[in-house]
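Researcher: I'd like a structural prediction for the single chain below. Treat it as a standalone chain; there are no partners to consider.
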Amino acid sequence: MYLSRPIRVSLLPEPSVTEAILAELERDAAFGAGAPFVELAAGFLAENGAGAVPVSPADTAEALAARFAEPMPKAGRPLAEVVERIRRDILPSAIRLSHPMYLGHQVSAPLPAAVWSEVVASALNNSLAVREMSPGGTALETQLVRWLAALAGFGPEAGGTLTSGGTEATFTALLAARAAVLPDAWTAGVGDDPPVLVAGEHAHYAVSRAAGELGLGTSRVVTVPSRSWAMDPDALAATLDRLRAEGRRVMAVVATAGSTATGSFDDLCRIGPLCAERGLWLHVDAAHGASALLSAAHRHRLDGLSLARSIAWDPHKMMLVPLSAGMVLVREERDLEAAFAQRAPYLFHGGDGRLWDQGTRSAQCSRRFDALKVWVALQRYGAEGIGALYDRLVAVTEALHRDVEGRADFQAVHAPECNILCFRYAPAGVPDGPALDELNRALRERYNRSGQGWLTTTMLGGRRVLRVTVMNPRSTEAHTAALLDGLAAEGGRLLAGSG
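Model: Treating it as a single chain, here is the predicted structure.
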C-alpha cells in the first residue's frame, strides 16, 4: 500500500541541541568570553620576557603525544575548562620564542601589536582571493605591496602578493619565470628538455623543491660554488657561459640575500648585471634579508636588489610579525599575472576586478588576511622602529661573535652579516674531525634539553657547527654571553662523561 504523502526525514540536529549551541555561540562572542584567551597570551609573553622559565619543554615526544591521546569530544564543555586545558597542556609544551635565551631558528618573537591583530583578522575571516570577498583587505594588501616594492627599488608597474612564506614566494616567482621562458608550459608542459635553474650552493631548499614542483626536475638545478659563504660571481659568470656554450636554456638565476645557514648576502651589484647582460630572469630569495631595507645601517647589503625580476620577502622573519606572512614581489606585475593562466568565472569576473583580485596572482585561493598584521606592525612601530629592532638583533649577534673570538674554547666559522652566527665548541684536547663534530652535535642536544636556552646546528664545509639566530629584541649581550658559558659547562660535563 502506498502512503498518501512522502515521509520527510530530517538530517538536522534536534531543535533543543541546535538552540543550545546557538546560545553558546552568542555567549562566546562576548568580550568576557574572549578576555581569558587574551589574558593567557599576555601572561605567556610576559613570563617568557622575564626569562625565568625553561625555553623548551623537558617532555619527550612520546609523553607529549600521550597528553593529547584521547577520543574526539562528542559534547562540548565550558569555555573556562578549554582555556584551562590550554594553560595546563599546551603552553608548557611550546618552544618559547619570546624568551631571551631562544636563539634558534628564523622564527620571530612576534611584535605584541601584531599578535593582537590576529584576533581581528580571524573575526573578519575575509578571504583575500577576490576583492568582492575582502574590499578593504584587498586595498590594504595592495598598498602594503606598493610600500615594500618601492623599498626594494621597484617602480609603479611593480606588484606582488602575500604568501605563506619564502618557499611559496620562491615557487610563485619561478612559476612566473617559467611562464616567461616557456609560455606554453601551463597547457603543454615543460617538454623533454626543460631549462635549468642556476643557484648558489647555499640556496634554500625552496629552489630544488620548486624545480620538482614545476616539472623541471631537481636534476635541472645547477649549483654555483661559494666564496665566503656567498655565491661567487666569477663562478656564476663561468657557469652561465658554459651553459650557453652547451646550448642549455636557463630559466632563472636565484641569488640569496640572507642565507639560511650563515645569513650571507650574495653580491647583487655583480650578479644583477650578469643576468641583465644575458637576458636572464634574476630571482632574489631575500626571505630573511629583505627587511634590512628598513635599516639605515644595513640596507647597503641589498644594493643591486632593484635589478631583480622577482623577490621573496618574509615579514614573519626580520619584521617580527607572527607566522605566517611571506611575500613575493615582481618588478612588473604582469609577470606575476602570467604565472597563473587559469580561469575561474565564479570568482574572477574580469574587468576592473582583475586589477585587484589577488587570487589571479597567487597559489592560494582561500587567503587569510595576513596583510593586516604587517600593516598593524608598521602603523604601531613605524618603519624606523622596525628598522631599529633589526639593528639591535644584528648588534647582539656581532657582540656574540666578539665573545666567541675572545675565547679559547670556541671557534667562529664566519663573521655575521646579519643576525645569524655559526661557531664551534672546540675545547683543548679534542682534535678537529669526526670526534669534534659528534661533540658539537651532542652538545646542542644536551644544552637544549636542559631548558637553559635553545640553538640550532648545521653542516658547513663538511663540519658540524652550532648556529645561533637572534630573533628576539629582548635578547642582550648578557644573554649571548650566558649562552657560551652554558655551552661550555655542558660541554665539560659531556667530556667528563657525567649524566
